[in-house]
TrEMBL record, chain A:
GO terms under cellular component: mitochondrial intermembrane space
Family in the record: Belongs to the cytochrome c oxidase subunit 6B family.
Chief location bin: mitochondrion
Name under which the protein is recorded: Cytochrome c oxidase assembly factor 6 homolog
Source species of the chain: Vombatus ursinus
Automatic annotation (TrEMBL), chain B:
Biological source species: Vombatus ursinus (Common wombat)
Subunit structure: Homodimer.
UniProt main location, coarse: mitochondrion
Origin: domain of life: Eukaryota
Organism placement in taxonomy: Eukaryota, Metazoa, Chordata, Craniata, Vertebrata
A GO-annotated cellular component: myofibril
Bilayer-spanning residue ranges: 47-66
Name of the protein in its database record: Synthesis of cytochrome C oxidase 2
Keyword annotations: Chaperone, Copper, Disulfide bond, Membrane, Metal-binding, Mitochondrion, Mitochondrion inner membrane, Transmembrane, Transmembrane helix
GO-annotated molecular function: copper chaperone activity; copper ion binding; protein-disulfide reductase activity
Role summary: Copper metallochaperone essential for the synthesis and maturation of cytochrome c oxidase subunit II (MT-CO2/COX2) by facilitating the incorporation of copper into the Cu(A) site of MT-CO2/COX2.
Cysteine disulfide links: 119-123
Binding residues for Cu cation: 119, 123, 210
UniProt-listed PANTHER family: ELECTRON TRANSPORT PROTIN SCO1/SENC FAMILY MEMBER (PTHR12151), PROTEIN SCO2 HOMOLOG, MITOCHONDRIAL (PTHR12151:SF2)
Annotated GO biological process: eye development; in utero embryonic development; intracellular copper ion homeostasis; mitochondrial respiratory chain complex IV assembly; muscle system process; respiratory electron transport chain; response to activity
Length: 79, 252
């Protein structure tokens, strides 16, 4: 399969951004964003969808981590 | 006795002249410019001699240091020349099908990036950045034209045609380079590039994990600097300009 052209990449990124915007507005409730999800899935290669899903998870984790939501447990802190 | 009374400031040929009319280095029995009665050199003489000796030592030291620096510089230039020939060499094919090796770019500044055409976001972003740097450098009059190179880490899929389709969308001078798996591996080793193809899905599609670096090579073909993902277009442009201003060829 040939790689996506620049136009196809931009369409995919746009769909991804729309989907992520919907998730941001709905506190990551995927059920509220089914329409955007299906546009996203039809605009991007499957590998890219998996990649962007993982990227979203990572970005969300990073947000939480930087906001200090992950504290070391008592046990590990004193070990 | 009155003749030895300095405080009276009475000049008499019988007395030794007051300190301020004494000739330099003249023998004297007292004061700062005094010395022993047997004629040992005065302090001023001693200071002068020490000063001359010290100056001589300093000059000799500076000369020796300059010579050492010259030797080191010569050795460094020799090392650079031999490194420039062997270091970072590659044997690849460009996106027009023409064989290329590092020597083909001698005399040019090169910005080199390793990636693959099936890359979801990072490679397009880095190549856009690279193209932006090239455009900014092109805009400056009198500066040599920089050669951007894109080497694939996915030779299995990125053949000459695929590379051609990909690079022309970023910059007209961006040259795509591909080859056999061995040739790409050789190039990757030369630049310490990590790359690893991920698992394939049902479409046989996969993503290649790889280090994300833009390399700067000078006109001698020597690796000069590198720029990570966090460097902006402006920062890279400024850095390349600085290197260009400072550059002196090992082969001139």
């Amino acid at each position: 399969m040939t790689a996506p052209s620049m136009k196809e990449r931009q369409v995919c990124w746009g769909a991804r951004d729309d989907y992520w915007k919907c998730l941001d507005e709905n506190t990551d409730d995927a059920s509220k964003c089914k329409k955007f999800r299906s546009i996203f899935e039809s605009s991007c290669p499957q590998q890219w969808i998996k990649y962007f899903d993982k990227r979203r998870d990572y970005l969300k984790f990073k947000e939480k981590f930087e906001a200090g939501q992950f504290e070391p447990s008592e046990r590990t802190a004193t070990s | 006795p009155a003749s030895l009374d300095r405080a009276s400031e009475v000049w008499s040929p019988l007395l030794p002249p007051p300190a301020w009319c004494r000739e330099p280095g003249a023998h004297s029995s007292e004061g700062l410019s005094g010395g022993g009665p047997l004629g040992a050199p005065g302090l001023r003489t001693r200071l002068l001699v020490t000063g001359l000796f010290g100056t001589g030592l300093a000059a000799a030291w500076l000369w020796a240091r300059a010579k050492k620096e010259q030797r080191q510089q010569r050795r460094r230039m020799e090392a650079l020349r031999s490194a420039a020939v062997g270091q970072g060499d590659f044997h690849l094919v460009d996106h027009t099908g023409r064989p290329r090796c590092k020597a083909d770019f001698a005399g040019q500044w090169v910005l080199l990036y390793f990636g693959f055409t099936h890359c979801p976001d990072i490679c397009p972003e880095e190549l856009e950045k690279l193209a932006g740097v090239v455009r900014r450098l092109d805009a400056e009059p009198g500066q040599p034209a920089v050669q951007p190179l894109f080497v694939t880490v996915d030779p299995e899929r990125d053949d000459v045609a695929a590379m051609g389709r990909y690079v022309r969308e970023f910059h007209p001078r961006l040259l795509g380079l591909t080859g056999t798996a061995e040739q790409v591996s050789e190039a990757g080793r030369a630049y310490r590039v990590y790359y690893s193809a991920g698992p394939r899905d049902e479409d046989q599609d996969y993503i290649v994990d790889h280090s994300i670096i833009i390399y700067l090579l000078n006109p001698d073909g020597l690796f000069t600097d590198y720029y990570s993902r966090s460097k902006t277009e402006e920062q890279i442009t400024a850095s390349v300009r600085r290197h260009m201003a400072r550059f002196r060829s090992a082969f001139s």
